[in-house]
Each structure stands twice: as structure tokens, then as C-alpha cells.
Amino acid sequence: MKVKRAGNQTVVFADSPVILSSYTVVGPMEGRGPLGKTFDQVWPDTLNKEKSWEKAESKMLQEAMQGAVSRSGFGKEQIDFLLAGDLLNQLISANFAARQLGLPLIGLYGACSTMALGLAVAGMLIDGQFARQVLVGVSSHHDTAERQYRMPTEHGNQRAICAQWTVTGAGSVLLGSEGDGPRITAATIGRILDFGEKDTNNMGAAMAPAVADTILNHLKDLNRQPSDYDLIVSGDLGKVGLRLAKEILLKSGVAVGEEFSDCGVMIYDAAQDVHAGGSGCGCSSVVFAGDILRKLRAGTFKRVLFVGSGALHSPISCFQGESIPGIGHAVVIEG
Amino acid sequence: MKVKRAGNQTVVFADSPVILSSYTVVGPMEGRGPLGKTFDQVWPDTLNKEKSWEKAESKMLQEAMQGAVSRSGFGKEQIDFLLAGDLLNQLISANFAARQLGLPLIGLYGACSTMALGLAVAGMLIDGQFARQVLVGVSSHHDTAERQYRMPTEHGNQRAICAQWTVTGAGSVLLGSEGDGPRITAATIGRILDFGEKDTNNMGAAMAPAVADTILNHLKDLNRQPSDYDLIVSGDLGKVGLRLAKEILLKSGVAVGEEFSDCGVMIYDAAQDVHAGGSGCGCSSVVFAGDILRKLRAGTFKRVLFVGSGALHSPISCFQGESIPGIGHAVVIEG
Q1: Residue A35: helix, strand or coil by DSSP?
Q2: Are B95 and A312 inside 8 Å of each other by CB?
Q3: Residues B253, B243: Cα–Cα separation, whole Å
Q4: Which letter does DSSP use for residue B292 in this model?
Q5: Cβ of A102 and B190 within 8 Å?
Q6: Best to test chain B binding among A55, A57, A95, A146 (most B CBs inside 10 Å)
Q7: How far is A141 from A57, CA to CA, in rounded Å?
Q8: Which of A171, A190, A299, B233 qualifies as a cystine partner to A328, CB 3.0-4.6 A?
Q9: Is the overall model pTM greater than 0.95, yes or no?
Q10: All structural domains of chain A
Q11: Cβ-based neighbour number of residue A321 at 10 Å
Q12: Cβ–Cβ < 8 Å for B300, B153
């Protein structure tokens, strides 16, 4: 059988799927950050009149997905699949948002890597001729994630200096087989790497090895150099993880400088006191669907490697003494 | 663009992917049930020397996946993707099992529908020429699910008569582009239906509308009748949900009798005191990878419609007053 693959982990799209439209909704803190103007909607607060943060997150994701659909000009009946995910137990943000949309749903879990994973799977479904249009939607919410993974926000407990701040945001992208826009040309599905990090306040360190592994395998599979990309952007390693990933790459013979950045580093200003930066699958989804896609559409970037990074633990696995497995999924987007 | 689709929700495989091998591991209660002899491994107890039920579930899934791989004769390097999921928060059973295998991982969440969802997505990745072989692995564990969704097992609280018993089991299937075995010829990806059921002890009722919806759309998309199948099997509606799904189908003009059964009804004997039957994504995965595949291989069944059913709630969504969204994903397997 002929396969659309290169090397061990990379798939290559024959008829590169197009990103037809995108839409982002964020919380007030993200709106005040350096990328604030790149987002489509900024909520005045993190509840926005909903009764709980969980309901607010689901509403935010729903608005992002409906925004991407209505901006595309396609009707809902022309969208063949919805790929959606979030950080919460049993993906409730995604499931309750999907309930409102009524589209055939494939639920994905890749922690903070979910947008990149969704783009990769959507690309395969379209390029494989199983769909004409596929909607991808991903969200996270600071306060739902705190309740889920750490301590309720109301505790007001002190955060570690290496900790990242979960972004309140939802990003959605509509991909299609035909049309104008940036194109997904390849994707590298990651494997789990776990170097034994057990500190849930240091997820950058837990994810860095897997991100570096995926970048190295991606470059090897396609016989490319970092200089073949205008931007390599992970989401979300934060400051600590980004530095570690660069170190691992350097030790593996791949030197990357400023052209390797991270959505978690980009989304907040140092003055916003978020310590190591942003995280949560909303982070990479709104930075990708906002700033990065704008620059690809404008021609500022010709080719970007977007590497979603996920920490695949749960509070229970950590309580039981397990370390944190990391994963990285990469997609190539060309303007 | 030419698409491999029929109707609104169904994809049709041009080069139907083959189920090359399968492997099942179950707990002692499932081993004593009417399908006990169809499973490859029966554990003597639900811990099997692991320190926690969560570690046991992950080990069980790992053994099922390794069993399917080694039985197939393929090396790990010939497997392009692992699709895996379970019921636990952040898919820890799947993620920790995947850590041991080192394969490129796509994490799926469809609650009890995950095996059917995994088969559908694996089929698209293979038929779309993005993979030669894809491994699918899905598990659930009675005691980890109780801790997660209801009360710790140690509470010993009384179960409602309409409640289902989460199966302790893991099933894995290796699919390939070429070879001998039953073939996946079509798949119908479901959309969420929610008729307002809020009783988490009655998940059969919550899932029945979505299962009926997927069956109706599947039959319409392919212009088929229930009699075109030797077996229509949901997983897992239990006794209550199966009866409701049949009623909904009948009201929609589709009469089905004994040829429509349910993995949750099949896996336990009435004398095992499980009330409405089995549930959990391990249930449909071990019944499918065990009994159903055996009968497809033996020629007892020529064509089966396997409809995974998922209840997409979480304890938090229920505490916040939400009803339970249901989903059904269907795959057609031909012997």
C-alpha cells in the first residue's frame, strides 16, 4: 500500500487541507496581555453571567466554534465532523458545547496539545477524503482547571515560581478541502516521554523532553532544519520548559534560538505576574487561532511548525506517586 | 472533491481495513460470566498484585495491547498509531499504558463508546493511507470508575436497580491495510443527543436516544434495513437502555427484535446480581474483541453493526444540575 508518510512519525498531506476560518474568545487577563488585540472576543470577567466557571468555559468554547463557522460562510450541514477537547474530567466543556452544535463529534484528549492533535487528525480526515469540512474547537479556563487539578481558586494559595497560569480561552478553526487560507502540509504525531518529573507545579519540565523528541523526529522524518521554519512554536511549555527543550535540542545537535518560541511565553506580559507563563489547551489554541494564523495569512510567516505539548497526568495519578508523562504533536502550516 | 461518504454521518471505506488480531483481559467477575471462555486472560482479582486499582487498570490495558500486537506477528515499529482511551480523568489508564508501548498516541474520549470510536477513526487513518497498522486499546475497571464517578467501593453503598455495573476489562484490536480477517466497511460518527435524563444511576436511559439516532441515520445513509445485519449490538445500554432504544426505533418505524442486543446485557448472567447489566468502555471493548470477533471470524456472523454508546457527563456537570449528554458511534464489520 502507498502511504502518505515520511519517516517513522510524520504524515504528509497530498492535497493540503486549508484553514478556512478561525475564532478566539478569551478572558480579561488574556485580553490585557501582549496578544490582546489579536483575539476576536474578550470577556469582561471569567464567568460572563454564567452560573459556574464550568458552564462559562463550555459557553466560551461554543462561542468560539460558532464564530469560526459563521465567519467561514459554511452552513452547519456542510461540516462533517467536530473534533473537540479540553482539560476537564470527561471533556465536559467540549461535550456540552458540542451538544449545542449537533455535529458528529470525535472527542480528543491530549491535554494542552489538543489543538495541534485536532489539526493533525482533521487534516487526515479531510486529506483522506472522509470529510469536506472539519471544525476543531479547544478550550481551557483558569478557575475550572484550578478546581480540577490543584486547589479551588477560593483557597488563594501561593503558586510556585515555575508554575504556569492556565489560560481562560477557547480557540476554534474550520478546515476544509478547498478554498483560500493557510494550509496544513504535514503532521507529526508524538509518543509519550517521561523523564520522571513528579512536580505538578513544573509541567514545563515534564513536557520538554516529549516536545524536543517530536521536533527532532519531525526534522529527521522530513529531512529539514529549524531554519526551514519562520517560527517553531510550542504550546505550552512556558519559560522553564522552553529553556529545557532548547537545551535538549542543543545536546541532540540542533541549535535553535529566537525562532523557537512558546505560546505560554507569548500570551502574558512579565508584569502580569504569571510566573513561568501560560498553559492549558486554551493557551495554544487562542495563540494559534489568533496571532499565528494572522501572521500566516498576512505573509509575515511562510511556514510555521506548531508543536502542541501535553502533560498527561491526573491528580489521582500524582497522588499515587506517578510521574508526569509528556507528549508533543506537531503540525506544519504554510501561508 | 470526491468524498468517501454516504448521507450525512456515514463514511464508507474503499479498501476496507482488516482486523488483524485482538486480545482481551478481564476481571474475575467477567470471567465467571456467560462470555468467560471468549476472553484471552482472566485475572484472579481486580488488583492482580498492583498497588492500586488505577495502576491495575492501566496494566490490564497494557497487557491487552501487547497481546494484540504479539498475536499479530507485527513488530512495534510497524504500528503507526495507537488510539486509546478509558473512563478515568485525563485518560490516565490509556496514557500510562501508552507510555510503556512508546507508540505515537492519539487519545480519544467517547466514554463507553470509545472502542467503536477508535475503530472508526483507525479505519479512516488506514483507508486514508496515513497508516499501515493502527492499534486500538480501551479499558475500564469497576473500582476505578466507582471512585471516579460515584462512591468509593469501600463505602459499600446500595446500587439502584436501573444501574449498570462497570466492567473490569481491557480490549485491544490491531487493524491493518492488508491481511486476513474481518473488515471494517463503514462507520457512522454520532452526534450528541440529550433528552434531559439527570439520573446518573440510569445511564442506559441517557444514552438510548443517541444510540437510536445513530442507528436510524446509519440505516438511512446506507439505505439499509436492520435485516441487512446478522447482529446489531450496542455497547453498553444495559437492559433498561436497550428496551428504550428499541422503543424509540419502533416509534421511528424501525422494528428490531432479538437481532438487536447489547454488550452490557451479554456480559453478565442474571444470577450475577448486576441489575441492568454491564457498562464502561471495557465492556463493549472486550465483548467486541472477544465474542463478536470470534463469531465474525468463524462465519457465524457475516455482517455486524457495532454501536458504541457513551454518556458524556462528569460528576461535576451533574453536581451543577446538568443532564447527561449521550452519543453513539457505529461501525460495520464484515466477516
Answers
A1: coil
A2: yes
A3: 15
A4: I
A5: no
A6: A95
A7: 6
A8: A190
A9: yes
A10: 5-176 (3.40.47.40), 183-334 (3.40.47.40)
A11: 10
A12: no
